[in-house]
Each structure stands twice: as C-alpha cells, then as structure tokens.
Design a protein that fits this description.
By secondary structure, the protein is an alpha/beta fold. The chain has 16 helices and 20 strands. The chain folds into 2 domains: about 1-165, Leucine Aminopeptidase, subunit E, domain 1, CATH 3.40.220; about 190-500, Zn peptidases (Aminopeptidase, 3-Layer(aba) Sandwich), CATH 3.40.630.10. The chain starts with a strand and ends in a 5-residue tail after the last helix.
Length: about 500
C-alpha cells in the first residue's frame, strides 16, 4: 500500500471512499458545511436522523453526491475532549474494517477535524491514522484460509488529506506509521499461528529470516547449549515437550553498545508456543487459546525488526525464550528444585507458573550480554485480565524514572498501562520454600499478580519494567476496530522506547 499526503480540500480528492471524522455534535459550518453541501446534504440529513450519535468508532457509509470521492464514510470519535492517540489509531482502523468485502482500492482520510484537537496536530494524526489503517486491514482468517475475500480491503493507496499542511513532512510521518502498523501485524500473525504450525524451532526460524532481512545479529541457543550455560529454569519448562526449546537472541548495533540515552536496552518476551500447564495441567476450557502464550516473544521479535526498519543500527537487544509447556515423561514436576542461571534455587510448586521461569533466565542472560535497562513482556497471569480487562495492560518496575520512560513511550504509542505496586511484604510468601531460595508460585496466592512480578524482580539487577499483557494480547470477540485474535499490543510501545535512544 502506498501512502500519500495531499494538501487539497477534502471535496476535491479523488478516491473510492472519503473518511470524515465526527467529534461530538457535528458542527455544520466551515469545511464540514461545504462537504455537506457538495454531498447533497447527506451529513446534515444523517445528523438530523440521529445517525451521528452513538458509541465511539461507530461508522456510517453514505452517498458522496458531487464530491471527488465515490462514497462518504463517517466515523464517530466521541467528545473532542476525550480524543487521544489511541482513539485516532482505532478510528482509522474502524474505517478500514467497515469496508470489509467492498471493492475499495483508494481510501482517503480527512485529517483536519482530528488535527484541530489532538496534541501534536496534523503531524501526530498523519502517523497514527496511517498506522490505524494498516492495523485495521489485518484479518487472521487469511492465515490458513485460501481465497478468503470477506476481510478489509487490500488498498492500493491511502490518501491523507491535510489542507494547508506540509505534505512532504507529513508524508514521512505517515510512512513511519505504516511501518509501525506492519510490525504490529507481523507480531499478530506470529501470535495467531497455531501450535502445530509454530513450534519453538519454527519461531526461531522466523526470527532468523527477519534478522537476515533487516541486517540484525542473531543467535539461537538450543537445549544442549542452554543446559551448558546453566539455564536451568528455561530447560525446566521446555524439557517436557517433544519440540525442544530455543533461546532466541537478536541484536541491533554492536554488543554492549549504548544508545543516545546511555542505555543498552533489552526487550525480553515470553514465548510459550503452547501452554498446557505441564503436570499442573490447565482445565480444558479455552486451552485452545494457549497458542497465544507466545505473544510476548512474537512482539519483541517484531519490534526488533521494526526498529531496524525505522532507525538501522539503533542499539537494541531482543531475547525471546521459546518453549512448549507439556506433560510428559521428562516434564518438571511440582516439588522439583531447579538452579537458575543466576545461581538461585527455585522450588517449582506449580508448573503452570512457567512464564516467570523462562523470563528469569532470559533476563539474567540479557544482563550477561550487557543490558543496562530491561523490559519484559508476557501473557503472564489471568489475574491481570480480571483486574484491568482487555484494554489496559499491567505494569511493574523499578526505579520509577525508568517506569516513567516506558509509560511515556506508551503514551506516544497510544497504548494504555496501569502501574501496580511491588509490595515488599508479599515477597515473604515467595520465599516460603522448604528447600529453595524462592518458590515460583506462592501457596498463599492472594495478590498473585503482584507476586508474579516480585518473582521476576529477583532475577534482575538493572532498571527493569514488567508488562503483563495477558488481558490485552488478544480479543475473544470482534470490535469495530479489530478482529478476534492477537492485537499486536505493546509492539508500538517497545519501538517508541527503543527509538527514543536513536541517534539522529
């Protein structure tokens, strides 16, 4: 898809569909009044009929009259005071998804109504709208179904209409948004692919292909080398499956190289390609969703590729421990005591608390490779979904200054996080072991969401943030702006965080 920015008036733009954002009660003056006049009064008629009221992201497709476009698509954005970066992305995605099954090749979006309200103006809207259209074009039904034609249209051209703006400047920002959206969609496809399709070995092969394509250094550590290095927790989870584990390490820039902010940033993602729970087996209900337990790894792999596309050579380390957590004759058992890469002895009281185990060794290894700042991302606990739902991810971290950096990256990305406390008193429950230094699952699991983060914290010594995306990683039902399945959440946050240290 080509993205083009024009400084024409919206009524002059030739396209199959012109998207018109509506914020609050439509003000039929100025440019919107002219659009209404040239459309034959369609906008006013829809407003009087009550069609332009309702939930945010509602869309209405109507005639374009004498406009340059063949159809008008009006998208509701709620009250102007509530417009934020996330809403712009989702409005654009909703517009693209509304056109599913239609023969649309040229889509135009009028930016001015949003640019007049959003902080950052047309610059921000151009990037976010472009990203939103790309993310809105995603449909997981195309992964395995040949000839699927009911999804959002495959556009030849996206036209961003910005009267009076610098089209060249906005064009560069829009292209940045397109690349960000493509990266999120890559993460979604890797996450959505089934467990019989993507094993740890296949995920490593996908990462290797991306590394070669984008000139990234890569190392894939197999089980023999992992055991030799002392990755006992990683191996404890992966040894039960017939599909052996892989520790995937990707790097942009030189080993240990610092970015413009003085960081050697590492992003570490949980990659459980299928999670049965192991010996502590899960209930059968919704176990099919456990192919999604690799989403953290898919996200950091895609983010590394996106950073390489946008700012080649930016120092960044991505570590993705990939395993299957399966019951079998070689599986770790509840009560086994295992030595971690950092030397601690872990009493494994529940094999379904496996994500924190592989993250622990991966974070230790990232520090051994020179990481000075670490962010881990994982579908870690059902508790975070019960607490925050499917639109807000949980976050823990220390020190606060680094947490603030990650949250600022999330703000730029238009993604929502809620910081939760690391309650020191709860750490005592994690050390209530007969034989080890720490248990992976507290026998008193009140506050289990916090305790999961406290466990991980025991394996980092540098500034660190933990993002629990178990609630936001995938949707169980379709929405106006997204299909069922993986959402690509936090990809943009990780990219923004890395790019904050890019050298001009």
């Amino acid at each position: 898809m080509q993205v083009r920015v024009v400084s024409d008036q919206p009524w002059d733009v030739k396209a199959d569909v012109l998207v018109v954002p509506i914020l609050g009660e439509p003000d039929l003056t100025g440019a919107l009044a002219e659009l209404d006049r040239r459309s034959g009064g369609e906008v006013r008629a829809l407003a009087e009929f009550g069609e332009l009221k309702g939930k945010r992201f509602k869309t209405t497709l109507t005639s374009a009259g004498e406009l340059g476009a063949r159809r008008l698509l009006l998208v509701l954005g709620g009250e102007p005071s509530n417009l934020d970066r996330e809403a712009v992305v989702r409005m654009a995605a909703a517009a693209e998804r509304r056109l599913a099954g239609r023969p649309v090749k040229r889509l135009a979006i009028w930016l001015a109504p949003l640019a007049a309200v959003l902080e950052g103006g047309a610059d921000a809207v151009a990037e976010l709208a472009s990203r939103g259209v790309v993310e809105g074009s995603y449909d997981p039904s195309t992964i395995y179904r040949e000839g699927y034609e009911d999804g959002p249209p495959a556009l030849d051209e996206l036209i961003l209409v910005a009267p009076g703006e610098d089209a060249a400047r906005l064009g560069k920002l829009a292209d940045r948004g397109r690349i960000m959206g493509e990266g999120a969609n890559l993460a979604r496809t890797l996450s959505n692919r089934s467990a019989n399709d993507v094993s740890p070995e296949v995920l490593a092969e996908e990462a290797w292909s991306l590394a070669e394509k984008h000139d990234l250094w890569i190392d894939v550590i197999g089980p023999d080398k992992a055991a030799e290095l002392g990755m006992g927790l990683f191996m404890a989870v992966g040894r039960g499956s017939a599909n052996p584990p892989r520790m995937i390490v990707m790097r942009s820039g030189r080993a240990g190289e610092r970015d413009a902010l003085g960081r050697h940033l590492a992003i570490v993602g949980k990659g459980v390609c299928f999670d049965s729970g192991g010996i502590s087996i899960k209930p059968s209900d919704r176990m099919d969703e456990m192919k999604m337990d690799k989403t953290g790894a898919c996200t950091v792999i895609a983010a590394a590729a996106t950073v390489a596309r946008l700012a080649p050579g930016t120092p960044l380390l991505a570590v993705a421990p990939a395993v299957e957590n399966m019951p079998g004759p070689h599986s770790t058992r509840p009560g086994d005591v295992v030595k971690a890469l950092n030397g601690k002895r872990v009493d494994i009281t529940n094999t379904d608390a496996e994500g924190r185990l592989i993250l622990a060794d991966a974070l230790t290894y990232a520090e051994q490779l020179g990481a000075t700042h670490l962010v881990d991302i994982a579908t870690l606990t059902g508790a975070v979904a019960r607490a925050l739902g499917d639109l807000v991810a949980g976050a823990f971290g220390t020190p606060q200054s680094f947490v603030d950096e990650v949250f600022e990256a999330g703000r730029r990305a238009g993604e929502r996080y809620w910081q939760l406390p690391l309650v020191e008193e709860y750490a005592d429950d994690m050390r209530d072991s007969w034989y080890g230094d720490i248990v992976n699952f507290s026998r008193n699991n009140d506050g289990g969401l916090v305790k999961s983060a406290l466990f991980i914290r025991d394996f980092v010594t540098k500034p660190w943030v933990h993002l629990d995306i178990a609630g936001t990683a995938y949707f169980r039902k379709t929405s106006a702006f997204a299909p069922r399945g993986a959402t690509g959440v936090s990809h943009a946050t990780l990219v923004e965080l890395a790019l904050a240290g890019a050298r001009a």
